[in-house]
Fold:
Amino acid sequence: MSENPKFIPTDRVSKKLKIVVIMLTVLIFLAFIALFNKFSNKQPIKNVPAVQEPLSNQHLVDEYQRVGTRLMNSGLKEQAIDQFIRVWEMQKFDGVEKAKAAQTVGRLYADLGNCPEALVWLFRAEVLDPEKILTPLIDACLAKVRNNISGQ
Structure:
């Protein structure tokens, strides 16, 4: 079989198929132009509320501290204890802020007369920040605990 040098592979393709392929190519080209125009002329959307970002750990800590302080000032010491325990738990590193939360929890427990629990938190505060002077409060709680033990 000798090949005809003038043979073009499209010679055997029907004209209907050629027309369909050309039309689809033109449609795709027009779709790309429309899409390009849509993106290039895009106007910012107005009056759409911004997506609220989740609160960071520090924002939550600040919130718990403010709520705890307000509860404490309102005389709701047990509820304030819960808030300050959350502050203590959320602190990632041992340090002054964690010690302050532990000290506050200890003082609140002492105010409620729960010296055994107060001592746990006061000792934590003392370990986290040795420069804090908690000795008078710790000594007062220790004396109450010892009196309760000896009185039983």
About this structure: Helices lie at 15-40, 57-73, 77-90, 96-111, 115-128, 135-151. The mean pLDDT is 82. Residues 30 and 36 are 10 Å apart (CA to CA).
